[in-house]
Amino acid sequence: MSPEEEARRLDAADPLPTLRGEFHVPPAPGGPYAEAAYFAGNSLGLQPRRTADLLREELDDWARLAVEAHTRGRRPWVSYHELLREPAARLVGALPHEVVAMNSLTVNLHLLMASFYRPAGPRTRIVIEDAAFPSDSYAVASQAVHHGLDPAGTVVRLRPRPGEDALRTEDVLAFLEREGGTVALVLLGGVNYLTGQLMDIPAITKAGRAAGAAVGWDLAHAAGNVPLRLHDWDVDFAAWCTYKYLNSGPGAVAGCFVHERHVRDASVPKLSGWWGTDPAVRFRMDPDIAPPASADAWQLSNPPILALAPVLASLEIFDRVGMDALRAKSERLTGYLASSLAPVTEIVTPSDPAARGAQLSLRVPDAGGLTRRLAEAHGVVVDAREPDIVRLAPVPLYCTFHDCHRAAEALADLLGR
Ligand SMILES: *Cc1c(COP(=O)(O)O)cnc(C)c1O
């Protein structure tokens, strides 16, 4: 059997057949196939076909009912965000009242840090990873400044050992053990955007909390990618965007998790707005807020319904498939891609399937040029992080073994191996 036939056989035999047909797959920018082999779903996920229906229904309610749709729409807008609560809770392993869909990711990180980054006495530092996404670096530095602290002495960037690309859990734990008394907040990426490393979220959360710090997670690359148990892992807070693995469209409404012990604690300080008060009294227009004992208390504004509809469409797919089945398929696909690429190029992402999600980062010469040629000559869409990293996300909902085969052949061709 040729490698291509083998890839087709794996697609036909997989216990979770591809849901590619439920998505708009863009045409190939070049090469012999009609559709792109799309590996950029960790940057912008593909559009589910059903998204347009849910959006059209809200546009239609707005046209037909106008202001009345707040209460009389087929999905009344005053409580629309509640439709996302249970599926979002299942997605990240939370209790329903621990999650809310609101704002965008960086905004949520700031709102959550307003509550959980409370520097005091010797405990002022914020721990992030050196390869943090820039928005996270800017956010934590500005939080330090906001509290009158010098970011240079406040933000600690954890680096891998020399010559290594991934952080070792043991080194993170040792740091927290040694210096935890000076740490107010640990804020790491659950899956690192650059290397694709999946962190040991339960172990690091436990160590950070044992050291007396608050522990939050940026789950931009983890939500919809790997199974999460945020409640059981005792995570203090988390936030994630929904336009990457969650396929909810550019700039879509983000998610937010606050552990039950905090949502029940009225003394936790928050920045407030009218959507953070109890809906039963919201329209009394009282000057004093009555926050509910739920993550909803962190909401500020009435939510953008036209931006929530795509999130609802997406969560329905995750609910139907389930994260465990998706993760099992993801390990099969990523493992197949890793073994196809191993003879061709250096893989930066950990080789242990338990330490990565649906992403392989490759170290290559001229990442930008290679990315362009992959698209133009082969219809393989990947993402470049200059100067030398190319990222491929074999997203299990719509990428196939055949796509992985195409990517490996195309890279072998362009890298001359
Ligand atoms: C994608 C990503 C962001 C993007 O932030 P937005 O506020 O959604 O623009 C932030 N942090 C990480 C780790 C990301 O991967």
From TrEMBL:
<feature type="binding site">
    <location>
        <position position="106"/>
    </location>
    <ligand>
        <name>pyridoxal 5'-phosphate</name>
    </ligand>
</feature>
<feature type="binding site">
    <location>
        <position position="221"/>
    </location>
    <ligand>
        <name>pyridoxal 5'-phosphate</name>
    </ligand>
</feature>
<dbReference type="GO" id="GO:0009435">
    <property type="term" value="P:NAD+ biosynthetic process"/>
</dbReference>
<protein>
    <recommendedName>
        <fullName>Kynureninase</fullName>
        <ecNumber>3.7.1.3</ecNumber>
    </recommendedName>
</protein>
<feature type="compositionally biased region" description="Basic and acidic residues">
    <location>
        <begin position="1"/>
        <end position="12"/>
    </location>
</feature>
<dbReference type="GO" id="GO:0030429">
    <property type="term" value="F:kynureninase activity"/>
</dbReference>
<feature type="binding site">
    <location>
        <begin position="133"/>
        <end position="136"/>
    </location>
    <ligand>
        <name>pyridoxal 5'-phosphate</name>
    </ligand>
</feature>
<comment type="pathway">
    <text>Amino-acid degradation; L-kynurenine degradation; L-alanine and anthranilate from L-kynurenine: step 1/1.</text>
</comment>
<dbReference type="InterPro" id="IPR015422">
    <property type="entry name" value="PyrdxlP-dep_Trfase_small"/>
</dbReference>
<comment type="pathway">
    <text>Cofactor biosynthesis; NAD(+) biosynthesis; quinolinate from L-kynurenine: step 2/3.</text>
</comment>
<dbReference type="GO" id="GO:0043420">
    <property type="term" value="P:anthranilate metabolic process"/>
</dbReference>
<keyword id="KW-0378">Hydrolase</keyword>
<keyword id="KW-0662">Pyridine nucleotide biosynthesis</keyword>
<feature type="binding site">
    <location>
        <position position="243"/>
    </location>
    <ligand>
        <name>pyridoxal 5'-phosphate</name>
    </ligand>
</feature>
<keyword id="KW-0663">Pyridoxal phosphate</keyword>
<feature type="binding site">
    <location>
        <position position="105"/>
    </location>
    <ligand>
        <name>pyridoxal 5'-phosphate</name>
    </ligand>
</feature>
<comment type="subunit">
    <text>Homodimer.</text>
</comment>
<feature type="region of interest" description="Disordered">
    <location>
        <begin position="1"/>
        <end position="21"/>
    </location>
</feature>
<comment type="function">
    <text>Catalyzes the cleavage of L-kynurenine (L-Kyn) and L-3-hydroxykynurenine (L-3OHKyn) into anthranilic acid (AA) and 3-hydroxyanthranilic acid (3-OHAA), respectively.</text>
</comment>
<comment type="similarity">
    <text>Belongs to the kynureninase family.</text>
</comment>
<dbReference type="InterPro" id="IPR010111">
    <property type="entry name" value="Kynureninase"/>
</dbReference>
<dbReference type="Pfam" id="PF22580">
    <property type="entry name" value="KYNU_C"/>
</dbReference>
<dbReference type="GO" id="GO:0019805">
    <property type="term" value="P:quinolinate biosynthetic process"/>
</dbReference>
<dbReference type="InterPro" id="IPR015421">
    <property type="entry name" value="PyrdxlP-dep_Trfase_major"/>
</dbReference>
<dbReference type="GO" id="GO:0097053">
    <property type="term" value="P:L-kynurenine catabolic process"/>
</dbReference>
<dbReference type="GO" id="GO:0030170">
    <property type="term" value="F:pyridoxal phosphate binding"/>
</dbReference>
<dbReference type="InterPro" id="IPR015424">
    <property type="entry name" value="PyrdxlP-dep_Trfase"/>
</dbReference>
<dbReference type="GO" id="GO:0005737">
    <property type="term" value="C:cytoplasm"/>
</dbReference>
<feature type="binding site">
    <location>
        <position position="274"/>
    </location>
    <ligand>
        <name>pyridoxal 5'-phosphate</name>
    </ligand>
</feature>
<feature type="binding site">
    <location>
        <position position="302"/>
    </location>
    <ligand>
        <name>pyridoxal 5'-phosphate</name>
    </ligand>
</feature>
<feature type="modified residue" description="N6-(pyridoxal phosphate)lysine">
    <location>
        <position position="244"/>
    </location>
</feature>
<dbReference type="GO" id="GO:0019441">
    <property type="term" value="P:L-tryptophan catabolic process to kynurenine"/>
</dbReference>
<feature type="binding site">
    <location>
        <position position="218"/>
    </location>
    <ligand>
        <name>pyridoxal 5'-phosphate</name>
    </ligand>
</feature>
